[in-house]
Give the backbone structure.
Amino acid sequence: MTNNRLTSKNSAKTNAEEPGAAVPSSSGAPAKTFSAPAKIFRRRNATPKKPSYERNAAHALVFAVLCAAFVVVFICSLGLGTYHIAPLDVVALIAGLPTSNSLQDAAMAHSLIWDVRIPRVCAAALIGAGLSCAGAVFQGLFRNPLASPYTLGVSNGAGFGAALAIVLSANALGIQLTSIACGLVAVLLTFLIAAQGKKSTVTLILSGMLIGSLFASLVALLKFCADPTEKLPQIVYWLMGSLSGITSTSLLSILPFYCICLLLILLSRWRINVLSMGDTTAASFGIHVARERGIIICAASVLTALLVSIAGIIGWIGIVVPHLSRMLMGPNFKQLIPTSCVLGGAYLIIIDDICRCATALEIPLGVITGIVGVPLFLYFIRKKKVDW
């Protein structure tokens, strides 16, 4: 009898140590089930992670390769166009060195490089980097792989401002300022509406969708009322995104605010890491969740409004590039945001090269980014790399 009792106790203890086993109760109550994650019991056979210094070295090597690729793309892009210039001649013209004999008119090439192509390629790099950075921030803070720089309605607000300025026959500076102002108004309205309900990221996203729909309707109204021969084509072309109208003056006018917003995001990378874990976890780290999230979202929204004001609405960059960066660097925002900036800059430079060199007429950026972005995003879904 004693041996039977010992055997039953040992079997109960053994079963209790297994995941999902029922633990008998001495008081006669229903047996409790001990559930443990299956991952705990698979850790013995799991592949050990690389040491942190090896991962850091690998990330540094990948980032260095991406930076080198960005420089190559930048230089090659300066030589592309109706008047082709070899990459070595581009470097010589920038550095003030003698060019090769194949370059017929060095003075004209020098003027073309410095006055036309450098402002445009720099604009493509800055806009691609800014939109990719903002997209990575929104995906992390909202914990949503479909979040983009336009989630809070800033693009539709800026588009309404630009359309309104075009209808009122404003100059380029007026279009830019009105676009920035309306984009920031859209973000402000989104925050005000979200503050009335439950203070969560879901409420903020829904408020952004609401404000975005409102401004999209107002843009449609302006397009209906605009002059169909002059104003309407200008509005439609602006909304599709283009770098053809960007000058050194317009680029320099937003550069100080651009640098401030980007620097603020770079300095907040560890906060974004914690906030991306959820509000409860972030609060346990001593972070004021609402304040820190609001500051970072405002910086990303202002950055987006600045870029939309000079280039129009360029979709898919803020969605696709952060996922590509996450595949290369992992979810840590310390590496993810700088990588997104470099990749985004190179990506938009290549897209702009396609737009201005593929056909005789320049194709709007939004067309090519959509054609390229959708297959890339479907590839990420197929590889199950769509995450935050």
Q: What stands out?
A: The first helix runs from residue 2 to 16. The domain at 67-148+241-252+313-388 is CATH 1.10.3470.10 (ABC transporter involved in vitamin B12 uptake, BtuC). The chain has a mean pLDDT of 84.
